[in-house]
Amino acid sequence: MNLYERFLAQDARALARAITLVEAGYPEGQALLRRLRGRGRARVVGLTGSPGAGKSSLTDRLIEEARRRNERVAVLAVDPSSPFTGGAILGDRIRMMRHHQDPMVFIRSLASRGALGGLAGATVATLALLEAFGFDRIFVETVGVGQSEVDIARVADTTVLVLTPAAGDAVQAFKAGVMEIADVFVVNKFDLPGGERIVQELRTTLELAAPRPGGWKPPVLTAVAPKGEGIPELFEAIEAHHQHLLEHNLLEADRLERARFEVESVIQEWGRRKTREGQALIVRVARGELSPEEAAMELMGLPRGVEAK
């Protein structure tokens, strides 16, 4: 059987191979994606927050909770990659290895490849493959680089912001971006000193926040992931938000925004590749002989004086 037939036959190795081809940008992967896109309908949950907040531990427990409900689960852990070599640690899977023998769980790491939003450029394409494979729920765990992670809201149906008491004034740290996009807040490691203070800060800040689509009010929950405390409540809050999206017909808008993000990611990657190829133009910009706009026009193949719209 070819890769497409093996994929439809639920061969997990075919899924892994398809993701590799898509992530690398091979024509074979793009052709496969065109045939598979639009199949399936998974609930996509994004987990974001600062490094060390315990996102991987929470994800591990959420996998467990989803499996209790007989769901097929996939996890995309977007790992930081080196800005120099492009290599990544790809270490988040280590924390979830206890699920590796479960055929109903698929865990995959993607390198961020320098994506500023904390997401790999191939994340949305990989989501399409996972949906086509028939997973019920997909967790996307982002790199953890602060307020620039707002792109997760453009990809996930439900965005969970993970905070910890040890992070200090979490509201101050996140209010510039991530506070506005989170649908559910969870203070992990709540057994540490300062947990109640952060919960109160969050609730006070949210009372002053602008209304969310459909009138959704983000809940503030607590958890201690290693002990499994607060996990069922977190899962129920995620489910409640999904029901809210269904009741207010907001899911389709989420899917359109995800497609928009994917197109923009392709354009950004194309731009990065073009600038690497156009070293001579970059040198001329550095010397002041060309403006960045003029160099960009030339790289895009547009005549001078024509504005890109």
From TrEMBL:
TM helices/strands, residue ranges: none
Keyword DNA repair assigned: no
Gene Ontology molecular functions: GTP binding; GTPase activity
Family: Belongs to the SIMIBI class G3E GTPase family. ArgK/MeaB subfamily.
Key words, A-Z: Chaperone, GTP-binding, Hydrolase, Nucleotide-binding
InterPro entries: GTPase/Isobutyryl-CoA_mutase, GTPase_ArgK, P-loop_NTPase
Keyword GTP-binding (UniProt): yes
Highest taxon above the source species: Bacteria
Pfam families: MeaB
Stored NCBIfam families: lao
Gene3D superfamilies, per database record: 1.20.5.170, P-loop containing nucleotide triphosphate hydrolases
EC number: 3.6.-.-
Enzyme class: hydrolase
Lineage summary: Bacteria, Thermotogati, Deinococcota, Deinococci, Thermales
Name listed for the protein in its UniProt record: Putative GTPase
Organism: Meiothermus luteus
